Amino acid sequence: MKAALLARLKDTSPLVREKAVNSLESMVDSNDGKTIQTLKPMLEDSSRNVRVAAAWLLKSSVDAKSRAGVELQAMLDFNADQPAGQYRKAMFDLARQQPSNALAHLRKGIAWDPFSPPLRLEAAEVLTQLGRFDEAANELHALCRLQPTSAEFRYKLGLALAESHQITGAADAFKEAVKLDPQHTQAWYNLGLALDALGQVDESIAALKRAESLAPKDPQLALARARVLARAGRNDEAKAAAMQALIIQPDFPPARQILESLAH
Question: In a designed cystine with 137, which of 102, 160, 257, 261 is the match (CB 3.0 to 4.6 A)?
Answer without folding.
Answer: 160
